[in-house]
Predict the 3D structure of the following.
Amino acid sequence: MSRVIEIIDKLEKSRCLSPGEYTVLLSPSLTAAEEEMLRARARAAADAVFGRKVKLRGLLEVTNVCRNDCLYCGLRRDNRQLRRYTLSHDVILDCCRSGYRAGFRTFVLQGGENPAYTAESVASLVGRIKSEFPDAAVTLSLGEWPDEAYHLFREAGADRYLLRHETHNGEHYSRLHPQEMSLANRLRCLDTLKRLGYETGTGIMVGSPYQRVAHIVEDLEYMHRLQPDMIGIGPFIPHSATPFAAMSPGTIRLTTRLISILRLMFPHANIPSTTALATLEGEGRNRGLLAGANVVMPNISPVEIRGCYSLYDNKAASGAEAVEGLRLLAEEIGREGFEF
Ligand code: SAM
């Protein structure tokens, strides 16, 4: 039996590998047959838990105002070319209403770290959504807050929180973020979210500038310790108004390989096939699902502002990516035998 097959077997059984074994699975020299075996085993693990059913999450991009200056992100403070917006609570509630009518039972409120947001205003928004839609889950993805704020959101009814750690290597973290941000603070946030009983999501961008295989191995070891409920993995895609404009994007190949490794590590986790994958390639979303992902997140934000939530260039925000395109999305994933 080849070393790679042994490692895949071990991952399936023990849900965890040594750093050297993760490195083998991430190596560019894996043969096409080995890569396909990893993919098929990961998809079988997803099938055993979720079948071919894909979970739908309605993504609401509530604000593109951000105090941070992350070097990779189009919403960074220093991007003066961006028309900034903040949706009012009433508009957000309207989007939830139309999302609810379309069948969504999870609303993901994502946005920059808007200095105009207070913990009380976010909590009040969560409270309004939960009282109007008690059977829907609210996921927040609003960045780093003090512990007390996360506590307040939870008391107001927030069920889940998504905060990618982006990289678990301190030196790499400092090349992606401005000096005033720290990996320690991000990890503090994730620990608090777990402790407060949120379903907690983390993740990384694949192929972010300066990322090495050794960093991804550190990320996998961290995720093994954290035991996240959700994992967001998408390729890095450059944005023309950031310092990383000229950097190369991450690849679909490595992204899907990581989805497969993570699926075998966490058979029950919710792993989306991300917009960034769909942006890189027409069949990107299906490639993510075939690698073991089980969630898609159509955009339910108002159509007029979608172009302004520009994390990276050419971000997909219409057609099968959006609430109006649910039929298209059903057709697209149906081609590979998935349904929602
Ligand atoms: N501010 C919150 C935070 O940082 O978690 C939520 C919004 S942030 C824009 C959401 C995610 O977008 C980040 O976690 C990051 O991984 C992803 N992102 C930002 N810029 C990106 C890029 N150029 N390519 C791919 N993903 C990107």
Q: What stands out?
A: Residues 66 and 113 are 5 Å apart (CA to CA). The first strand starts at residue 55 and ends at 56. The beta strands are 55-56, 58-63, 106-111, 137-141, 160-162, 199-206, 230-235, 295-296.
